[in-house]
Design brief:
This protein is an all-beta fold. The chain has no helices and six strands.
Length: 77
Amino acid sequence: MFTSIDGKKIYSADQLTFTENKDVYDAALGAGLGYKLVTKKGLVFEANASYGKLLFNADKIDHTVVAKYGLSIGYRF
């Protein structure tokens, strides 16, 4: 997965000024699972989840893993 993370915003003690770091772009390697159900009337239900570990720029942010979850409902035509 290709991912982007907003740069950290660090506020001063008086909350009047802050420092904003640059956005971080990275790739993650992991695994995912999903399930899809299609009814005879064309309704589609889908659920998925994935989990991955950042590969290159994990030292520039406050976490080293990413997760993605999804739930979709649609109509197949």
